[in-house]
Structure formats: structure tokens, C-alpha cells
């Protein structure tokens, strides 16, 4: 099967599917890096950066930087226009990260759970839309999806669900993340 094969009238052409995938994934990984940078900054401000949560967040941030580097490269190689919302994601990501870490280690981990569950679903849908002609991109998306799931699992094991207001916090972050995905594919 090829990307876009069997599409209906009005569906995106294969090239547009790939452009949107690369654009939104680069934006998402950029945002993830900024969230972790915000969390690490808040942990430094509060003297908790060398604790267990700080070490875990720093490790997750390294993975997200590798993901971002891959999508930065793909933007250039495939001549895909990045989202024009990067300045917004720069500030919003850092602010979200700092705010959740200031709420406590478990809230920082709850943020990770919310983001990674949203990305898991997003990457699964994306991998399903990419055909054999985009096998390399699909493999990258599937690999990154597995790493994001590992981050979610680590955050859950770190007590994320014990964060005050966990359900409200994660629902809010998921809603914002889904909106960011929708906007970044288009703008």
C-alpha cells in the first residue's frame, strides 16, 4: 500500500500527508523538549534537580532532543515548512513544564503521562496513514512511539497518578496537546 492510496475525494494527497506528519512531529518534539527544559529549570530553582525525578526528566529530555534532531533533519531534507507556531510552543512548553514541576515531582510526571498518551495515539494514527513508500518515516514514527510509551510507563511507575488533581491535570494537558497537534499540522 502507498501513502494516500484509496483516499477519498477531498482527502489530502500523499505529499501533503507526509508534509503534515513531519511538520507536526517536529513541532511536537520541539514542544516536548521545552516542557522538559521548563521542568528542569523549576527543579533547579527549587533545589530538586538532583533528585530522582530530576534524573528521570533529564534522561527523557535527552530522548526528546534526539527525536527533535531527527525531525529537524527531515524538515530540511524533505523541504517541509515548519509550523509558524513555534514561538508559541516555545513559551507554552516551557511554562507548562515549569508549572507542573513547581506543583511537585508527581505533577511533573503526570504531565509526562498526559503528553505521552496523546502522542502514543497520534503516532499510532500517523503510522497507519503512512504507506510502504514511506516505510522509513513510518519506522521512525513507530520507534519514537515506543520510546514515548516507555516515558509514560516510567512516569506512572514514579507515582504520576498520585499528583493532586491528577484527572483534571491530565485531561487539561491532553486537550491542549490535541489542539496543538491540530494547529501545527495546518499553521
Structure description:
This protein is an all-alpha fold and 187 residues long. The protein has helices spanning 14-45, 52-77, 86-102, 105-129, 135-157, 166-186. Helix 1 runs antiparallel to helix 2 (52-77), helix 1 (14-45) packs across helix 6 (166-186) and helix 4 runs parallel beside helix 6.
The gross shape turns out to be elongated
Overall radius of gyration: 17 Å
* Total strands: 0
Mean pLDDT: 92
Question: Which keywords apply here?
Answer:
77% helix; 0% strand; mainly alpha; 187 residues
SSE layout:
Layout: H1 14-45, H2 52-77, H3 86-102, H4 105-129, H5 135-157, H6 166-186
Q: Could you provide a short overview of the structure?
A:
This protein is mostly helical. The chain has helices at residues 14-45, 52-77, 86-102, 105-129, 135-157, 166-186.
Amino acid at each position: 500500500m502507498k501513502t494516500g492510496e484509496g483516499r477519498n475525494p477531498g482527502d489530502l494527497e500523499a505529499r501533503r500527508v507526509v508534509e503534515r506528519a513531519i511538520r507536526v512531529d517536529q513541532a511536537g518534539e520541539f514542544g516536548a523538549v521545552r516542557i522538559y527544559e521548563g521542568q528542569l529549570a523549576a527543579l533547579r530553582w527549587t533545589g530538586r534537580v538532583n533528585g530522582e525525578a530530576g534524573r528521570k526528566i533529564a534522561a527523557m529530555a535527552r530522548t526528546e532532543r534526539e527525536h527533535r534532531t531527527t525531525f529537524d533533519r527531515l524538515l530540511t531534507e524533505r523541504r517541509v515548512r515548519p509550523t509558524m507556531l513555534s514561538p508559541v510552543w516555545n513559551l507554552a512548553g516551557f511554562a507548562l513544564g515549569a508549572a507542573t514541576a513547581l506543583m511537585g515531582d508527581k505533577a511533573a510526571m503526570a504531565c509526562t503521562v498526559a503528553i505521552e498518551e496523546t502522542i502514543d495515539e497520534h503516532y499510532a494514527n500517523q503510522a497507519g496513514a503512512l504507506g510502504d513508500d514511506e516505510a522509513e518515516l513510518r519506522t521512525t514514527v513507530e520507534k519514537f512511539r515506543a520510546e514515548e510509551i516507555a516515558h509514560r510507563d516510567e512516569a506512572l511507575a514514579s507515582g504520576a497518578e498520585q499528583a493532586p488533581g491528577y484527572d483534571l491535570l491530565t485531561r487539561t494537558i491532553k486537550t491542549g496537546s490535541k489542539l496543538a497537534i491540530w494547529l501545527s499540522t495546518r499553521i
